[in-house]
Amino acid sequence: MWVVVAVLVVVALLVLAPVIATFYTEWLWFDSIGQGAVFTRTVGAQVVLFALGAGVFLVLAMTSLFVGRAVTRRMGGLPFPREGALTYIVRVRTYSADRLVTYGALGCALALAAMMGSIASSRWLMFLRFLDLTPFGVSDPLFHADVSFFVFQLPVYRFIQEWLLAAMLLIGAMSTAYYLVRSYGFSFSSADLAALAQVRGVRVHLSAIAALVSLLLALGYRLDMYDLVYAHRGAVHGAGFADVHAGLPALALLSIVAVAMGALIFLNAFRRGYALAAIAVAGWIILAILAGSIYPALVQQYEVQPSEVTRERPYLQANLDMTRRAFGLDHVQTRPFPGEPDPRPGVVERNPQTFASIRLWDHRPLLTTLNQIQTLRLYYDFNDVDVDRYTIDGQYTQVMLSARELSPERLAAQARTWVTQHLQFTHGYGLVMSAVNGASDQGLPDLLIQDIPPTGKIPVTRPEIYFGETTASYVIVDTSAPEFDYPRGDQNVYRSYAGTGGVLLNSVLRRLAFAIRYQDPNILLTSYLLPQSRILYHRQITERLSRLAPFLVQDHDPYLVVADGQLYWFQDAYTVSDRYPYSTPYGNGQFNYIRNSVKVVTNAYDGSMTLYIADPNDPIIQTYARIFPGLFKPISEMPVDLRAHIRYPEGLFLVQADVLRAYHMNDPQVFYNREDLWDIPQENGPDGVQPIEPYYVITRPPGEEQEEFLLMLPFTPSGKKNLVAWLAASSDGANYGRLLLFEYPKDRVNLGPEQIEASIDEDPGISAQLSLWNQQGSKVVRGNLLVLPIEDSTLYVEPLYLQASQSQIPELKRVIVATQDHLVMASTLRDGLDQLFKITASGSTAPSLTTVVPPVISTPGPPPTPTAAGGSSTVDIAALTRSAQAHYQKAQEYLKAGDWAGYGREQKALADDLERLVTLTSGQASR
């Protein structure tokens, strides 16, 4: 007996130990970041809801069980007319049959109560939102209720109704099973069930449960009426004409019929037969089909569809208004944009900040380059490149930066021990920062911060990265094992952790708990730990936020910030809901309301996290602030040096831009016909043809006095490729969050990105040059095509990178600059702009005039040869371009035929033409 008990205790400990260890270490983690109250509030809510759910179900189940027990006692003893498992147990073990059945029912009730309690506990956040809700101050168009009713209250009412309905169905099934087993054991037939149903007490008991189920169905129909604001019948997201004039009355009628059905079912218990109950149920089913489905469908088909726009107009307008409000598009400032073909003279002088900040580095080639020239050791890695702005040498400068994180899995196999991976190699080190438009003579990025230890334009005094984007494993710091800090030549520098992050491992209990949690006995057995040793876990910044605030949706792109010599991670977090009335769901229906309500700042050294409320007008974040007092801080408390790096998030911007493609239309009829639908254009990027990604720029929006750090994206008409508009979001100062929509004139064509890309591909000189490079053991990589509205015209800029087949380092070699009528390829942006503006200033009307620069060689071309001003040089350029294209095509024919001598002659002739083109264009540039 004692052996059995001991085995059961051991098994229980083995099962419960990981659960207890995880719970304990989670509490330690929340306490270590100063948010123990969040943990206790969350666990407390779960425990209370579990107790309420289990308790309510148990009370209902036990009440039904006691009623059943009373009824069966009046029926007499257990007959057990046939052999079965229950009769065997009673006879062999001499248990009381009545007690055995009762205990079995009680055990079943307890198990179901635990299940129902767990279901209630899982909705802890929904109930907390319900208790601490904040009104939206906006009413829905149909019921004129505050939106908070739909977002916070209606989900709770629906859950309670469905939970009670499931509980009553389970109790009804359990009660029926109790009567059968109590009367016939485990072996019974349908005849036994029919005989049991003739017993008056049984009929009344089960009919009462069925009547309660009917009342809960009636409540469900009432809630369904409010759910019509999410309907999608016909052209409208939200209740349309058929929903309001047919669906709504039908649901009201069905709720009354369900109440009547419950009453008739209960009354039937006192009558012989089942006619009354059968009529009630049949009538409910028929009415549910006719009124609930067929009637609204008929109204939709025969009354709405013949004049759908007229019938649905007010509901379309409601959908337009509520969707724009839900996605933060109701405050978009729409302005006209002239879209002149060429910039006015002096544009560079009037906009020096803009032209100095044109980004020439695509983040993908730059990331590849940084991983080749700045990792410095195999165990470091750059995982992402971010865009930000800093004041450098007194200039407001747009930069690109990337954190140098540790990748311990890249250590040599023999070096990957528990000590090296968890005690010694614990953190990344420093970052690389580069100018967005700078490059060396070799085509490499112009680094503003580089190397180990970091040196450059901005001081970095705390470069260690213990918390980052890829720091997934735990580490233990401040131990007796030497902790690697950074490499220096052939030697390594070691330094102990001096922060306060993590949890102290100052007791055997804590070491045991972490050893159990991570299934790693080394934590308990190692001799390297000291009383001040700390374990750092949940080090990945996205994981940290999801554990602290699982109700926030995170942006996909955290970014690194240097401030006061330290490194910080910025994360944008969103509040979302799928319960905003009359708002069209986004994507696969995950949400129909979104706000960028929180900015999260995490110190890369000690892991301290601060959640700042960025949108205090959002009722959802106000509700969370009530639920978790002390979790959030107002954005005004963010230090000034950090606040300067707040930027509008790409994730929200993409969602808003996607929604705006249709919801920029104001007239319901235009919206219904999709007459002015927009698309996001395509470009030839490093990975092939792809949609243009939003891009950050420093520019002065038309009509504004000051340059701003903007996030931008152009639009084209659906099915067409010309530009129709561009959207910009402000990131600086008091303008943060402002959305500007500039629309091009519709009486002339403004070339879109795909049309500019086509012009590049079709240009004989450029295509010949690109083809030549691609055949010389190298590959041309095309960067982002930037569409840059400057003053009243549009400038297009696309960088070109050259990557040798034996190298993994893309080098910036050419820049293509274009306007509506002219196209130039040059060695640098400065040269390209000079050539382009000389062409536009000359008044030339030649379309797509192309200036070709030297092929990719490190030596400069021959000195320029002066040419006479006028059109002759233009003719020479065009003739040479055609000649170069002809030589290129002829060389390809020789190559296919295997005539290497002919191929060599044509290649030489092609090179001669290109060299002459260089001479002519250089002469134009010198003038």
Summed over residues and divided by their number, the pLDDT gives a mean of 87
| Counted beta strands | 35
Q: What is the CA-based Rg, rounded?
A: 36 Å
Structural class: alpha+beta
**What's the tally of helices?**
27
The geometry reads as globular
Report the portion of residues in β strands: 15-25%
Biggest β-sheet, characterized?
A: 6 strands, mixed
Written description of the protein model:
Helix content is 47%, strand content 19%. The chain has 927 residues and is α+β, with helices and mostly antiparallel strands. The strands form nine sheets. Strands 3, 23, 26, 27, 28 and 29 form a six-stranded mixed β-sheet that branches. Strands 4, 5, 6, 8, 9 and 10 form a six-stranded antiparallel β-sheet that branches. Strand 31 and strand 32 form a beta hairpin. Helix 1 (2-32) packs across helix 16 (508-517). The radius of gyration is 36 Å and the shape is globular. The model is unreliable at 77-94, 845-872 and 923-927 (pLDDT under 50).
Topology at a glance:
Layout lengths: L1 H31 L3 H40 L9 H9 L3 H25 L2 H8 L15 H38 L5 H8 L2 H28 L4 E2 L2 E2 L3 H28 L6 H30 L3 H19 L6 E4 L10 H4 L1 H5 L6 H11 L6 E3 L3 E7 L2 E12 L11 H7 L3 E2 L1 E9 L5 E6 L4 E2 L7 E2 L9 E3 L6 E5 L2 E4 L8 E2 L3 H10 L4 H4 L8 E3 L4 H8 L4 E2 L4 E5 L2 E12 L15 E11 L5 E5 L5 H9 L4 E3 L5 H4 L6 H14 L4 H6 L4 E2 L2 E4 L2 E4 L3 E5 L8 E10 L7 E6 L8 E5 L9 H10 L1 H11 L3 E5 L3 E5 L2 E12 L6 E8 L3 E5 L2 H13 L7 E3 L20 H26 L2 H27 L1
Parallel strand pairs: 3-29, 21-22, 34-35
Antiparallel strand pairs: 1-2, 4-6, 5-6, 6-8, 7-11, 8-9, 9-10, 12-16, 13-14, 15-16, 17-19, 18-19, 19-20, 20-21, 23-27, 24-25, 26-27, 27-28, 28-29, 30-32, 31-32, 32-33, 33-34
Helix pairs in contact: 1-2, 1-16, 2-4, 2-6, 4-6, 5-6, 6-8, 8-9, 9-10, 24-26, 26-27
